[in-house]
Design goal:
Chain lengths: 254, 325
């Protein structure tokens, strides 16, 4: 698996997939703290004679805004860059080349998934650190542990989407089909959460990892409330991995 | 070269192998045994089922029925990495991770085949040099031409020196010089490794292979030692080539008058080619030398005319079409 992982990291870097993802994350890490701080002033510029009364900006708002943007835009970028992970290599013959070397099918798939997870976590953590420090410098200090846990939670939530996209890329016939499954998973993770968010069941849905960011950062919701969603997310990832590996072992690579 | 590490008589054994795609029977009840240490030519026109058979052998696709064994282990899509250590495979259109350089591709091969130490590095450089890829070794393979990819593919197969090499049309994208070098390289592997070599170019197979199987429309038409096959089909063009000490033209004229000679002619090299019909070949065999000696000619060379592989292939496919009609 290590050879595939290394090769995938090199490939992702040189093809600009991973730097592109990192740039999107960094963009929001640099955009959200100042836009949160100066939002009232920005609105006043466009308000004309209207009087706008906004609460003073809180560091939690800037960081929650960052996590929200990553949940939206960066996950879309993640789907786009990972939908061809395996499907494209099945099309262009690289998968056949790798799989006729002494590499097992499981290791081939796991290496590719692991590289994308590493790249995504790396980008999100780097962006999180940057956003945290920038927020601190502009708006004041934010509790480190909740910010870190929420950043990791976002990484885990994104990994669910990534795993579904990877699975569809491995088992489907084209990158577009995989992209469709990735987008579908985003909606499937979000829709039940929007309906069940106020019920006890909502705590178990993966979307809780990102949906409660503001409340957790302000200390309204305890960190422990994220555990059920994290466990369900890990279980979902495990199920997707086992299902994909099992099906891929018998798949014909033309 | 590591030589033949596996003391197995037939590194490849295929029994009743069939692969069906909807209505298309790509491989139809194929039986093959590839002897250890041989250069085995797998010959057939495009679309005959060669690549499909090879894809089953390498675990890329599964058979509809029958079985394929490599080093006595059944091959499936879950072929183990340990078994793959013994196999080097070159695809018809070699493709590599496009973002890697030639050197990195070789390094990845060395890692996956668990080549130890740094010797592989020198060996990789030697192979890149041998295949004229050293100047492009640090360029990404995505920018390589088809011929360069094919040469790199051969280098990647040779690097770990596996005991079994499966080469699917290894010279198809090469210029005449590259083709010559690759065929020479394949020829040198005889006895060192088992080479399963598919091609639709009959001259290539005839040049380097010692065993041959002919496949057409998914079915094996013939499997044999190349020499035996050529002998078997001697009657395809019944006749002899001979050389005389002198008076070749005169001898040809005299032989033409015999009932059992269809034609006797003198070639540019002063050799005499004597042809007859299939029905009279026995008479020619019995009477030729006697006819010449009694007339006072001295025979310095005599050998039966043998068809080339192309003629045998055409005869086999024509026979099959005749049977089908």
């Amino acid at each position: 698996m290590i050879q595939v992982l290394k090769r995938e990291l090199v490939d992702g870097w040189r093809s600009f997939r991973f730097p592109g993802l990192a740039l999107v994350v960094m963009f929001f890490a640099l955009l959200d703290p100042p836009s949160t701080k100066y939002m009232a002033e920005i609105l006043k510029m466009f308000a004309g004679d209207l009087v706008i009364q906004a609460p003073p900006p809180h560091p939690a708002d800037a960081f929650a805004s960052f996590l929200g943007d990553i949940n939206g835009m960066a996950l879309l970028v993640l789907i786009v860059i990972s939908m061809g992970l395996v499907a494209r290599e099945k099309e262009n013959g690289v998968a056949a080349w790798v799989l006729t070397r002494p590499v097992s099918r499981d290791n081939y798939l796991l290496g590719k998934l692991a590289a994308s997870v590493v790249a995504f976590f790396g980008a999100v953590l780097a962006g999180g650190v940057l956003c945290y420090l920038y927020t601190w410098s502009l708006l004041g200090r934010l509790e480190l542990i909740p910010a870190l846990v929420l950043t990791l939670g976002l990484g885990l939530y994104g990994s669910v989407v990534l795993a579904v996209t990877w699975s569809a890329s491995a088992l489907g016939k084209s990158p577009l089909v995989a992209g469709g499954w990735g987008l579908g998973s985003l909606f499937l993770l979000w829709i039940p959460s929007s309906i069940l968010s106020l019920t006890a069941a909502g705590r178990f849905l993966p979307y809780s990892l990102v949906g409660q960011a503001g409340a957790v950062l302000r200390g309204v919701t305890p960190l422990a409330d994220l555990i059920p969603a994290a466990m369900v997310s890990l279980a979902l990832i495990a199920v997707v991995i086992v299902f994909t590996l099992t099906r891929f072992r018998a798949l014909e690579i033309e | 070269m590591t030589g033949l590490k596996h003391p197995i008589q037939y590194p490849i054994e295929i029994e009743g192998l069939t692969k069906k795609y909807r209505d298309n029977m790509a491989v139809d009840n194929v039986n093959l045994k590839v002897p250890a240490g041989s250069v085995f030519g797998f010959l057939g026109p495009n679309g005959a089922g060669k690549t499909t058979t090879i894809k089953i052998l390498t675990g890329l696709i599964s058979a509809t029925s029958g079985r394929a064994k490599v080093f006595e282990q059944a091959v499936t899509t879950e072929i183990s990495p340990d078994l793959k250590q013994s196999i080097g495979y070159l695809a018809q259109e070699p493709v590599f991770p496009p973002q890697l350089t030639g050197t990195e591709v070789m390094a990845m091969v060395a890692e996956t085949y668990r080549l130890q130490g740094k010797e592989w590095h020198d060996r990789a450089n030697g192979l890149l040099q041998e295949f004229d890829l050293l100047p492009a070794a640090n360029r990404r393979v995505g920018a390589y031409s088809r011929g360069m990819r094919q040469r790199l593919g051969i280098a990647t197969v040779l690097l770990p020196a596996p005991p079994l090499m499966i080469l699917d049309e290894p010279a198809s994208a090469l210029d005449p010089q590259g083709r010559y070098e690759v065929l020479e390289m394949v020829s040198r592997l005889r006895g060192e490794a088992t080479v399963f070599f598919s091609s639709h170019i009959l001259a290539d197979v005839e040049r380097v292979c010692d065993w041959v199987a002919i496949i057409d429309r998914g079915q094996i038409l013939k499997q044999s030692r190349l020499g035996d096959l050529l002998d078997e089909y001697t009657g395809l063009h019944p006749g002899y080539f001979l050389r005389l000490l002198d008076r070749g033209t005169e001898a040809a004229q005299e032989l033409t008058r015999e009932d059992w000679v269809m034609v006797a002619e003198v070639g540019d090299d002063n050799g005499v080619t004597v042809r007859t019909t299939a029905g009279q070949y026995g008479l020619l065999q019995e009477g030729l030398v006697a006819a010449l000696v009694t007339r006072g000619y001295t025979v310095t060379e005599l050998r039966p005319l043998k068809p080339d592989l192309e003629e045998i292939f055409l005869a086999l496919t024509a026979k099959r079409e005749g049977v089908e009609r």
